[in-house]
Amino acid sequence: MALQRVLQFAHSLMEGVVEKGDITVDGTCGNGHDTLFLAQLVGENGHVYGFDIQQDAIHHTEERLREHGVDSRTTLIQDSHSTINEHLAEEHKQKVKAGIFNLGYLPGSDKSIVTKPEETIASVERLLEQLISGGIIVLVVYHGHPGGKEEKEALLEYVQGLDQKEVRALQYGFINQRNTPPFIIALEKQ
Ligand SMILES: C[S@@+](CC[C@H](N)C(=O)[O-])C[C@H]1O[C@@H](n2cnc3c(N)ncnc32)[C@H](O)[C@@H]1O
Q1: What confidence category does residue 12 fall into, taking pLDDT thresholds of 50, 70 and 90?
Q2: How far, in Å, from the CA of 148 to the mean position of ligand 1?
Q3: Which fold has domain 6-189?
Q4: Ligand 1: which atom is nearest the Cα of residue 51?
Q5: Relative to the CA of 142, which ligand 1 atom is closest?
Q6: Secondary structure of the chain: what % helix, strand, coil (to 5)?
Q7: Which atom of ligand 1 is nearest to 106's Cα?
Q8: At 1, is the pLDDT very low, low, confident or very high (cuts 50, 70, 90)?
Q9: β-pair partners for 101
């Protein structure tokens, strides 16, 4: 397929900017797929900070990272992604190259535990401050669940209001798919 699926596109964006030795953030670990992907991209001298509010998610992510032998280059935090400033090591502050957020709920788990608009926006704002110039944030926006529409609308309003001299904002998604297909918001710090 010539047009990349949403998750493929998210990973391509990450691959395009993340280099060995970089500092990255997975704002929503879930089962740890993106945390693992980032850990492999940053190599043994890089670092990934992974956040999730659910203990099970942290546990599954930990196991996945260990299975692949990349756990030592990650810090997993059972807390909201909005606490990022408290958890970044001093030497990693304002040195983050990329961050990813998969919004919504974790498939196969409690569907009432979802990302929330105010918290997601606060986290994106904080992460933007921690990004180096040329760094990116990728948000995969799932919005078919209760509360998803409100989060989608709040986020779009927020990113559309960002000053283009400071941040370039992109939206990517299919527009003729049934139901409520996810889409991507990607931000690049100038
Ligand atoms: C769509 S899932 C993430 C899927 C994940 N990327 C994967 O590869 O499996 C969303 C996750 O966000 C988590 N979450 C919800 N609110 C959060 C918050 N404020 N901070 C961090 N994680 C949060 C949920 O617990 C859930 O595991």
Answers
A1: very high
A2: 13
A3: Rossmann fold (3.40.50)
A4: 21
A5: 1
A6: 40, 25, 35
A7: 2
A8: confident
A9: 139
Phi-psi sector, 156: left (phi>0), alpha (psi -120 to 50), beta? alpha
CA quadruple 72, 41, 135, 13: dihedral sign: negative
Q: What is the pLDDT of residues 38-79, one digit of tens each?
A: 999 999 999 999 999 999 999 999 999 999 999 999 999 999
Please report, as a single letter, which amino acid is at residue 41: L
* Sign of the torsion angle spanned by Cα atoms 95, 4, 139, 57: negative
Q: Which residues pair with 23 in a beta bridge?
A: 47, 96
85 confidence band (pLDDT: 50, 70, 90) = very high
Ligand 1 residue neighbourhood (C-beta within 6 Å) = 27-28, 30-31, 33-34, 51-54, 57, 80-81, 102, 104, 106, 113, 115, 119
How far apart CA 186 and CA 190 sit, in angstroms, is 13
* Averaged pLDDT score across all residues of the chain: 97
49, 53, 183, best to mutate for ligand 1 pocket (most atoms within 8 Å of CB): 53
- Say what the pLDDT of residue 93 is: 98
The one-character DSSP state at 166 is T
Cα–Cα distance between 136 and 139 in angstroms, integer? 10
